[in-house]
Amino acid sequence: QMSAESTLLWFRKGLRLHDNPALEAACKNAKHVHPVFIIDPWFMNPDKISGVRIKFLLESLEDLDSSLRGLNSKLHVMLGKPDEVLPKLFEQWNVKRICYEYDTEPYAVSRDERIKELAAEAGVEVISPVSHTLYDIDWLIQKAGGKAPLTYQSFTKLVDQVGPPPAALPPPTALPPPKSDALRLAAEAGLPGDGCVPSLTTLGYSELADGIGFPFTGGETTGLQQMHKHLSRKAWVAKFEKPMTAPTDFDPAATTQLSPYLKFGCISPRLFHSELVSIYRSTPGSSKPPVSLEGQLLWREFFYTTSVGTPNFDKMVGNPICKQIPWDNSPELLTAWEEGRTGFPWIDAAMTQLVTQGWLHHLARHAVACFLTRGDLFCHWERGRDIFDKHLVDSDWALNNANWMWLSASAFFAQYFRVYSPIAFPKKTDPDGKYVKHFLPVLKDMPSKYIYEPWTAPIEVQKKAKCIIGKDYPKPIVDHAMIHKENISRMAAAYNAAKALAGGSGGGGGKGAS
Ligand code: FAD
């Protein structure tokens, strides 16, 4: 009997059993399937990635392991660099095939290129299907004539042309077991660890304090529960319009909060998408892209497509869609922003939610990103991007970079003169400042009238609220009314310079951004 094959199923994102084509491919004619997750030191740096995200990842791995155990399998968690760990496993487990989900991020692409070489040397077949996005992004770009669309409208046209994405696969009902001595064999090759999901502290992180962390547990089980909870509110789904949701709602949030599950692939975008479409079909007059929930998934897909189709997408310099803007770089202002010490309660509360929960509503992200860049502090979007990347549980290379370019009016969006007011904007949805009072308890007794500009409260009011501005809570670090106008002029100058340059060199530069 041929094909007594041993295969390796390498989980990276895609931490789920449903809609997992790599898993399906690994099981085909296999006698043994070895599910593996490798904890890559690249991703375990407390200076660059917060414990809030790592905790969510570890919960997701625990959940995956427990689901695999339900199918008489298990997750083998390995520690080390994939290009050092995998060749050892190929040999020790006599692996003939490795299957993993295709990943478009630059780090993943170069990592996977190296793994393909190593697999070829070891005579191991590689299968790498697409399931992190609705479509195969490279195929989409081909369909667009080899150039990634640079506007959402042209992107949705493309999607209409190519038809609906592939259907989601059901979860497996059985899995070939791993070799029973797989872990002993791995240890014999000198691989560290006991194969189990490690704790935060063994990875060099401190335990999270009470009340710190994303409000929901990581993993496919909770992700699917949350998704179905939202989908069961059919009227809400059908009416959903993103700009109408309140960034100041926090318990519960006004949007789905599924982003961390989509980031790690605990839920399948294809499954979510098809469920949304079936609700729209049965509900006449449903909302439409770009504001509908389907529209949100298409934003994700659009930004993935431009991120693959644009060189130096994560940089200003050398990035053909990014406006060149002479940002200031004040480390003091940047740190005050990150630590929630700008003196603007709305901005500081949002940054506190970011750092403690690892999540923010889209419009709160708008507010703090605009404030840091073109609105008030004129810091480089790449610095804000890094700080978001550290703290967001859902931090995603394509989406984070794209949205930072958007908010800094560096690409996609050109109305740099439309600046969010850190005072008027939150008032629209939260006139009493409940959000601020929750995340900044020092302001909890400040009267609503002054909650977004407490420096204007008379000193007796500050005393009564037990919050003296300049002592218990900072004074504003900039004069918004003045500085945002100055910054608009600086943006105008940069835009004009880009225009002049484009005129002189016959294109390039800023075209795509307008
Ligand atoms: P919902 O409104 O419920 O939408 C459902 C899903 O659609 C989201 O989970 C997400 O996967 C996708 N989606 C929604 N809005 C966007 C968008 N504007 N762009 C791309 N996809 C979207 N999102 C990330 O997932 N990772 C990031 O690193 C990230 N960085 C951002 C940085 C900035 C400066 C800004 C302004 C936005 C960023 N976003 C990022 C996009 C957006 O804010 C979040 O996806 C959204 O707020 C997540 O909440 P939700 O799951 O409740 O969204």
From TrEMBL:
The keyword Flavoprotein applies. Residues 5-134 form the Photolyase/cryptochrome alpha/beta domain. It comes from the Eukaryota. Its cofactor is FAD. One of its GO terms (molecular function) is DNA binding. The keyword Flavoprotein applies. GO terms for cellular component: cytoplasm; nucleus. GO terms for biological process: circadian regulation of gene expression; entrainment of circadian clock by photoperiod. Keywords: FAD, Flavoprotein. Binds 1 FAD per subunit. The record marks W327, W381, W404 as: Electron transfer via tryptophanyl radical. FAD binds at residues 255-259, 296-303, 394-396. Belongs to the DNA photolyase class-1 family. This is (6-4)DNA photolyase. The chain holds residues 59 to 572 of 607 of the full protein.
